[in-house]
Write a structure and sequence with these properties.
With about 160 residues, this protein is mostly helical. The chain contains 6 helices and no strands.
Length: about 160
């Protein structure tokens, strides 16, 4: 375990909350591993049950590494700080909602774009999921979608177009 403190000066390192080591991206790694496991299992079906199991394990490892690579393209700490600062000047923000109401939409938007989801697919998926997953929240999809789109567009400009990821 590292003895390095987690501090504001190094927030861009996206430190692991347990070890303190830089480069922690559990969401990207998990999403990549899940997708890789499914693809590997499907490819391994040709070899029967043992081939499917081996394909799932190999796919999970490869997918996890790819997911971590994609997640390292974006720094969620920087994105959260950006949206916290600028959200009040966004045209869709109403006085009845706080940053905390919009924050899940921003996160979903930038994560969907960096995951490689195109706009139409991302919008359709989140239109289907939003109200059920945020039933306790004040912000319904109709009001969350512009924040989702703004974060998707920013991630597209900053992380997809600039880096080619």
């Amino acid at each position: 375990m590292s003895n390095q403190p987690i501090d504001d000066d190094n927030s861009h390192l996206n430190r692991d909350p347990i070890s303190g080591e830089p480069g922690a991206h559990p969401v990207g790694t998990g999403l990549g591993a899940a997708g890789g496991a499914l693809a590997g299992a499907a490819a391994g079906v040709i070899g029967g049950p043992i081939g499917a199991a081996a394909g799932a394990v190999i796919g999970a490892v490869v997918g996890g590494l790819a997911g971590k690579g994609a997640a390292e393209v974006i720094n969620p700490t920087d994105e959260e700080a950006h949206w916290r600062e600028v959200h009040v000047s966004e045209p869709y923000v109403s006085g009845e909602h706080t940053y905390d109401d919009y924050a899940p939409a921003y996160r979903a938007g930038w994560e969907a774009r960096v995951a490689g989801t195109d706009w139409d697919a991302a919008r359709a998926e989140w239109a289907r999921r939003w109200d059920a997953e945020h039933a306790d929240g004040k912000l319904k999809w109709e009001k969350a979608q512009p924040a989702f789109k703004a974060a998707w567009d920013r991630a597209n400009r900053r992380y997809v177009q600039e880096t080619g990821y």
